[in-house]
């Protein structure tokens, strides 16, 4: 689709897309840094989802296929055809508005998701902004603002502390295990670049012993591979990113 024909979609995980229409290449570059890219990669790693793709969307994962479609393609092609609309906000974004008539004022209600303020125009702008910031700080409390709470995107990630760097590592290990089924867990970890806490010391202050390193690497990679399986299975069911059953 020519760039000029692409609708100006608002995608919260794509920086800048809420304010302006992004050139398609810029949008693609940013999408490849987003959780949407790693969700797509998880689906590519899911044998169950690939089987559904090859069956034309028939099967237990047909509902997911209806949204995500066939992932046996490049990310760029999938993003333009499916992804960008799947993760775009469908409802208009809420914004600050000025109340200019009595009817609009009468329709206002005190709600948990907003505050209503009155600003005297005789007050200096810098003073008004300082007072508004104070009110917002009190309203938000100690918790960071959850910009996803009011999202209207058809597909959304769950609240999770799992970082995309972790997802990348898990998928890398999962792929290596499939390519090299006879490789030891220690070798897999070294090849994937798994980093252990090598600051651990013996009672004599010496560096960690190689055998202990191998044991710790084996335990870590075993845990990561199990988490990778959960991550991929959950992603195919519409739950991302989740690394537990």
Fill in the keyword field for this structure.
245 residues, mainly alpha, 0% strand, extended, disordered N terminus
Report low-confidence residues grouped into runs of 5 or more.
1-5
| Strands, count | 0
Percentage beta strand: under 5%
Distance between the termini: 40 Å
Largest sheet, described in full?
none
Instruction: Round the Cα radius of gyration to an integer and report it.
Output: 24 Å
Q: Which structural class is indicated by helix and strand composition?
A: mainly alpha
Mean pLDDT: 87
- The number of helices is 10
**What is the chain-wise order of helices and strands?**
HHHHHHHHHH
Helicity range: 40-55%
Shape: extended
What do you see in this structure?
With 245 residues, this protein is mainly α. Among the domains are: 3-86, no CATH class; 164-236, no CATH class. It contains ten helices and no strands. It has helices spanning 24-31, 35-45, 47-54, 62-68, 75-86, 102-107, 125-140, 164-179, 185-192, 210-236. The protein is extended.
Secondary-structure map:
Blueprint: H1 24-31, H2 35-45, H3 47-54, H4 62-68, H5 75-86, H6 102-107, H7 125-140, H8 164-179, H9 185-192, H10 210-236
Helix pairs in contact: 2-8, 2-10, 8-9, 8-10, 9-10
What's the gist of this structure?
The protein is mainly alpha-helical. The protein contains ten helices and no strands.
């Amino acid at each position: 689709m020519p760039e000029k024909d692409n609708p100006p979609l608002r995608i919260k995980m794509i920086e800048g897309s809420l304010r302006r229409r992004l050139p398609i290449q810029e949008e693609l570059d940013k999408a490849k840094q987003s959780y949407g890219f790693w969700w797509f990669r998880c689906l590519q790693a899911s044998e169950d989802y690939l089987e559904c793709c090859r069956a034309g969307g028939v099967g237990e994962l047909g509902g997911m296929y209806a949204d995500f479609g066939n992932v046996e393609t490049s990310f760029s092609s999938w993003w333009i055809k499916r992804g960008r609309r799947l993760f775009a906000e469908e409802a208009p974004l809420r914004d600050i508005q000025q109340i200019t008539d009595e009817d609009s004022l009468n329709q206002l209600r005190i709600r948990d998701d907003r505050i209503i303020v009155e600003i005297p125009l005789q007050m200096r702008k810098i003073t008004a902004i300082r007072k508004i910031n104070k009110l917002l700080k009190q309203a938000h409390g100690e918790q960071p603002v959850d910009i996803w709470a009011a999202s209207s995107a058809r597909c959304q990630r769950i609240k999770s502390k799992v970082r995309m760097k972790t997802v990348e590592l898990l998928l890398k290990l999962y792929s290596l295990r499939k390519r090299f089924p006879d490789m030891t867990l220690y070798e897999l970890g070294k090849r994937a670049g798994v980093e252990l806490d090598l600051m651990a010391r013996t009672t004599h202050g010496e560096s960690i012993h190689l055998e202990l390193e191998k044991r710790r690497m084996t335990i870590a990679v075993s845990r990561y591979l199990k988490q990778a399986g959960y991550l991929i299975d959950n992603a195919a069911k519409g739950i991302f990113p989740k690394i537990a059953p």
